[in-house]
Design brief:
It is globular and about 55 Å long. By secondary structure, the protein is α+β, with helices and mostly antiparallel strands. The protein folds into two domains: 59 residues, no CATH class; 147 residues, Aminopeptidase (3-Layer(aba) Sandwich). A ten-stranded mixed sheet has the order 1-2-3-10-4-9-8-7-6-5, with helices on both faces. Its EC number is 2.3.1.-. This is GNAT family N-acetyltransferase.
């Protein structure tokens, strides 16, 4: 059964839905139920046998996980204290989505990627859950739900990549979240984002979940 997604629908200005394939995948049954949507996300723990050109594999999401124990404070990273929307943060938000399915799906031609990532960074600013380098050379967003923490967006400016800024951002987020009661951290990313996967593995994370994501899009 397809679930409507009001948040995405409002941002994209057309009906968006999602479906989670939990057992048997029946493509023909699915195609009979999509007439009221323009875009549907399909999530599956296994790769699906697809024949319709309207359904494309757009991402294999891997979620890294780690227990937080005795995390030390990191110098050079601070909370973004302003309530003002920053063009610099907007640039970094777009950079964080280099491998995003909303960017790599070439059928999404109405600025969906920019609209979505702009809203994500705005919400993180409003929640005061953004950390930045002192010179805005990088940023990371996070969220907390009781003892569970999660990284949202992370990006390092092109001029500072390879200098260890990404590690500092993750460690700073771990430190803040542990102070606020988190016992574990999760970081979702794309399997195709090899540099990010290697970074998280180097910090002691392991893959806790893999999800295959497809987009059905009405031509």
């Amino acid at each position: 059964m397809i679930t409507a997604l009001p948040f995405d629908s409002n941002i994209f200005n057309y009906p968006v839905g999602k479906i989670v394939v939990e057992d048997k995948w029946d493509e023909q049954d699915f195609l009979k139920t999509v007439k009221d949507f323009q875009l549907v996300y399909i999530f599956s723990s296994k790769a699906l046998d697809i024949s319709s050109p309207s359904i494309q594999h757009v991402d294999t999401k891997v979620t890294f996980q780690k227990s937080l124990e005795s995390i030390e404070k990191v110098n050079g990273i601070e909370s973004y204290k302003s309530d003002e929307f920053s063009e610099r943060l907007e640039e970094l938000a777009y950079l964080s989505g280099t491998f995003s399915r909303f960017k790599t799906d070439t059928r999404l031609k109405n600025g969906e990627f920019q609209k979505l990532y702009k809203q994500w960074i705005i919400k993180a600013i409003e929640s005061k859950q953004v950390l930045v380098g002192i010179n805005m050379e990088g940023m990371i967003t996070y969220s907390l739900e009781k003892e569970h923490a999660k990284i949202g967006l992370i990006a390092v400016s092109e001029s500072h990549q390879g200098l260890g800024v990404g590690k500092k951002l993750v460690r700073a987020a771990e430190y803040i979240c542990q102070l606020e009661g988190a016992q574990e951290m999760q970081i979702p990313t794309q399997e195709s984002n090899i540099p990010a996967c290697k970074l998280y593995e180097s910090l002691g994370y392991h893959v806790a979940e893999k999800v295959y994501i497809y987009h059905w899009y009405k031509d």
